[in-house]
Fold SHSP domain-containing protein.
Amino acid sequence: MEGSCKLVVRLRVLIIIKKIKKNENETWRHVERPRGKFYRKFWLPENAKIDEVKASMENGVLTVTIPKQEIKKSEVKTIEIN
């Protein structure tokens, strides 16, 4: 089974699109794998470093790595009431 995979980040949403084409040389009596298009969305958190997203595919397994920024804890300042 052949196909192409595409990853897009738009407005803090990671979109994965996989088009699956049937290989003309394959002959099956029964196939449980889908044909056509796979489409999935993942909403990314505010601290995701979108410019540093990396992806790799090995043996048909897609791995997406999204680093995150350190969130600085805001200081709490007590204000005296007069």
Observations:
- The radius of gyration is 21 Å.
- The mean pLDDT is 84.
- The beta strands are 2-10, 13-21, 36-43, 54-58, 61-65.
- The CA atoms of residues 56 and 63 lie 5 Å apart.
